[in-house]
Structures are given as structure tokens and as C-alpha cells.
Design a protein that fits this description.
mainly alpha; 4 helices; 56% helix
């Protein structure tokens, strides 16, 4: 497991919005996905990372709990 994937996402709502945006990219294209994520307040650097090849995003579901004590 890389250091980046070991990081726990603290904003689960944003993680879900990013995942929806990625799905939207495959259905409607990059521009609608980018617009959606911008409206949701996703930071621009995150949008670029997840929408541009080579898709340097973490696997959805790896975010776990924001509380390290609650994570097995």
C-alpha cells in the first residue's frame, strides 16, 4: 500500500462527489464532470488529478474513517 492510498479521507461527502464526477466523465464527458465537481467545491488540483490520465486517484472505498482509532 502506498503512502497516498494509506491516507484516510476526512471528507466523505466530497469523496462521493468526486466518485460521481468520475462516473459522469465516462457517461457524459470530461467537461460536464469538471463542471459538476467545480459546483460541488472540489479543489481544482483534485479535479485535474482524477480526470486526467493516468488517473492518479485512490480507489473508491479506501477512505475509511477519518478517526484512525476507529479504523481496523
Amino acid at each position: 500500500m502506498s503512502d497516498q492510498s494509506a491516507f484516510r479521507r476526512s471528507n466523505l461527502t466530497m469523496a462521493e462527489q468526486v466518485q460521481y464526477g468520475i462516473t459522469l466523465m465516462y457517461v457524459a464527458g470530461r467537461l460536464p464532470a469538471q463542471r459538476y465537481m467545480l459546483r460541488c467545491g472540489v479543489p481544482g488540483e483534485v479535479i485535474e488529478r482524477v480526470l486526467e490520465p493516468p488517473y492518479k486517484r485512490r480507489v473508491y472505498g479506501e477512505h475509511g474513517s477519518a478517526d484512525p482509532a476507529a479504523t481496523p
